[in-house]
Amino acid sequence: MSASAQGVQGHCDPAFGAVREAFEAGFAEGRELGAAVAVYAGDRKVVDLWGGVADRRTGRAWEADTPAFGFSCTKAVTAAAALLLAERGAYEVDGPVTDWWPEFGAEGKEGTTAAHLLSHQAGLPAFARPVSAEEAADAPARAAELAAQAPEWTPGTAHGYHALTYGWLAGEIVRRHAGRPVGTFVRDEFAGDLDLWIGAPDDVLERAAKLSAGRRLNSGSGSSGSGSSGSGGETAAPGGADAPKAVGDGDVLERLAGAYVDPDSPLNRALNNPHPGKGGFNNPVVLRAGWPSAGMMATAPSFAAFYRDLVAGRILRPDTLREAVRTRVRGTDRTMLVESAFGLGFMRPAMTFFTPEAGRENAFGHTGAGGSIGLGDAEAGLALAYLPNLMGDQLSGDLRAYRLVEAAYASLA
Predict the structure, then answer these.
(1) Structural domains in the chain (count)
(2) Residue 136 placed within a domain
(3) pLDDT tens sequence across 74-90
(4) Which of 14, 69, 212, 226 is most buried by its number of CB atoms within 10 A?
């Protein structure tokens, strides 16, 4: 059964009809297999839409309660957990990591702060050796491995996206100060009522959406690239009239294309190690383990509710959130090769987290490989989540999330 035959279902406030139109257009243009989008304006859920196919192989329909994999959208949830512990006085964000993790001072990393771990400045964007999915399930061992590893730059002097290692760095903040894995802490402290898991139980995996390689449904063409395993896809910003002009620059695209095919490039080393193994990020070994960098399974309404609660001050105090989303680093990313900007675990508007003009001052959140996004804006009172299962086109840019975000901001106006 085709994605379009399943139809778009759910609720959309008439004032946010532009979001429905943008969502339906994704299916009509063959850019979706299955997907869900949810939007909160303040505490009011104004959009809750889903449609298409959750499992291409069986034709199973996407339902209202279908969970989907969020890739690196997970990082924002892990960051919130780490920041909640800082808010409670467990550690100092700008204090040395060695105060509570002495082993981390090895190989010249003694000046590293927790803020460096949270803002991709730690100099550990990739493991020095190949790590399997089974090994990645042992969070304490992977954290210890990174603690002993030499940095690729002096921590705090540059930034480069820690695509997967971020989870065992920021996650160690939680594990050491809360005595629990990130997924357990998140469920215990602020997501117990949400359909959101970092490390999903088997009953959730059974009804979850299955990821599919990034080729358009209409034509069957397009490159799956690293997206076929669910590894890449977070380097490109959307194209279009309002996109950063550098995205269309031949030199940038040439460098990105070269990095994608070079197995030794910082981009590939960061995105593909640990490798998820057989089945890519559909591998139950990965999904059960709940990598704190890329292991979240959630429904779109629950993921949007996470941002709703962040914006409303129900997870972190407003002053904590303001400091967390303050831009700590901006500029050319050593891993992703294009402009990125980060606060403490949250992306800020840049080529890697492109937002319409209305959101460029206050939007924060995180993208995920294949096109997913979670976004909050405390000034606008906006929270949005979009979770697809068809991997997007990495190098040409993925407009699906951008169009939804643009429509949401326009609807607020």
Answers:
(1) 1
(2) no
(3) 999 999 999 999 999 99
(4) 69
